[in-house]
Task: structure prediction
Amino acid sequence: MALLFTKGSVYINLGNGNLNKSMTIGRIKIIFRGYTSIMDISFGQVFWGEIKGAKKRILVFLGGPLISLVLALITLLIIMNFKFTLIVKIILRSISLYSFNQFLITIIPIEYKFQPYNEMKSDGYRIREILSKYKFNK
Result:
């Protein structure tokens, strides 16, 4: 979403380690940091330049949680409509549950108090901030 609403580059940071490998695809720069722990495997951040307009900023912050929800629903539909071996079912269910949990954790407006996101704000929190500022200025 950020690519649609900004003219600058969009940076995707994957991991919280010291590795510094990167690749660029058009205006997207993906930086692979590696991980300090297997528990932090989901850590990622996206950075972009200025986006004008509250609606556009909200759409950008909705992007991450919605992708998580879509992934959860797609894997659930695949499980329900196709036959798999037990191990494949377990893997797909794990992906679906993890993605749904990721959706909930990112859409609920909170400031994280746990690693690896300690002291960061959820996408839902950022959306709430935009909405409160937008309503205040009307």
